[in-house]
Design goal:
The chain is mainly alpha-helical. 43% of the residues lie in helices and 4% in strands. β1 and β2 (32-36) form a beta hairpin.
């Protein structure tokens, strides 16, 4: 019946009669000292209008705006996402052992704006990304390196690689494959065959890849097993989710290039990006390349890139014409149908160019 279709979620609730709690003398739970009651430490200066006797009252106080910490912690996380590090560089420690904020008044102001806006996250995100600080160039001048080498004070824009989910979503968005729908069940995109068997998950739990539009949903909807996480995302430092992670590592390894150059999802994205380039209406090679670079990086290609990639294009076009089977194999990667109207040799050569562009630092990094 309908009741069986409703997902059941366990919830916590308070006991009808609170359990008596005592201080344990020298940590011995059999040796009771003074009885203690729920409450907040005095240094928080909780007003009498917010008695804290249970979890619900504690939660209400946390987001009341009277608590000095929550709004600061949240806006610091937002700042960290956009700039690579927070105004407080130790997101796991706001106490005396943590790093003090580099811009305490800015942190206070953002926190106050957040609370007074009714905890409007979209407004704070917009405030940050439309700021002059965020819209600076990331070009580093000699005086920056001398005075502020790690960019503590934001005299220039930060430069760092996008998170793993964003790397995949960015490639799908540039190619035109990304499905932007909100909500719904998790999906199973491409992953190496036999992965679940390797980690002993084969017994009755065979991995069956999804088909159609489900393959191109945003990475946040990827079906996730902690014992067998999605390898393409893990290569880009996506946490395995056993524990909460406040700040991700950012590493650079050869494995990452193997993912963006060879993984089915990225090769298919490159194929569709090439299709988008060839259907753009641009006639000359430089115009097509500029179209591609503007989609991927926000700016046209310089002369060096045009010269190098034109030489590569001419070389690969000849390779595909000499061996048509290689072009056919490349254009068959991924489930989505190929565009039969396009010249296969031209399409294959541009697929390799598109793959190079999607793999460039200027595409994978926030600059």
């Amino acid at each position: 019946g309908p009741e069986e279709m409703v997902a059941k979620v366990p919830v916590m609730r308070e006991r009808s009669h609170s359990r008596e709690t005592f201080i344990h003398i020298r940590g011995n739970f059999l040796d009771h000292g003074e009885q203690v009651f729920p409450g907040a430490p005095e240094f928080f200066q909780v007003p009498e209008s917010f008695p804290i006797r249970n979890r619900l009252e504690f939660a209400r106080w946390l987001v009341s705006g009277k608590n000095p910490l929550v709004a600061r912690v949240v806006v610091n996380r937002f700042w960290q996402n956009y700039f690579g590090h927070g105004l407080v560089r130790t997101p796991d420690d706001y106490g005396a052992h943590g790093t003090p904020p580099t811009h305490p008044l800015l942190l206070d102001w953002l926190a106050t704006e957040f609370v007074e806006s009714g905890w409007d996250m979209k407004r704070i995100h917009r405030l940050i990304v439309t700021s002059a600080t965020y819209r600076q160039s990331s070009v580093t001048r000699p005086e920056h390196l001398e005075i502020d080498p790690v960019n503590l004070y934001h005299a220039r824009a930060p430069r760092f690689r996008m998170m793993g989910e964003f790397v995949r979503d960015n490639a799908l968005a540039i190619s035109g494959l990304l499905k932007r729908d909100f909500g719904g069940a998790g999906v199973k995109p491409y992953q190496p065959p036999g992965l679940w068997v390797e980690v002993s998950l084969s017994g009755g739990r065979k991995f069956i890849r999804d088909k159609g539009e489900k393959l191109y949903r945003r990475s946040m909807y990827t079906y996730w097993k902690r014992s067998a996480p999605q390898p393409a995302l893990m290569a880009f430092d996506t946490p395995s989710r056993e524990v909460c992670v406040l700040q991700r590592q950012r590493t650079n390894t050869p494995m990452q290039a193997l993912v963006t150059l060879n993984d089915d999802q990225f090769v298919e994205a490159a194929r569709h990006f090439a299709r988008r380039i060839l259907n753009s209406g641009e006639k000359t090679f430089p115009d097509k390349l500029n179209f591609a670079f503007e989609w991927a990086t926000g700016r046209p290609a310089d002369q060096l890139r045009i010269d190098v990639l034109k030489e590569f294009y001419d070389e690969q076009s000849k390779v595909f014409k000499d061996d048509p089977k290689r072009a056919d194999e490349l254009l068959s990667v991924g489930e989505s149908p190929r565009d039969e109207k396009l010249d296969p040799y031209d399409h294959a050569a541009w697929t390799l160019l598109a793959s190079i562009i999607l793999n460039l630092d200027e595409t994978l990094n926030r600059e």
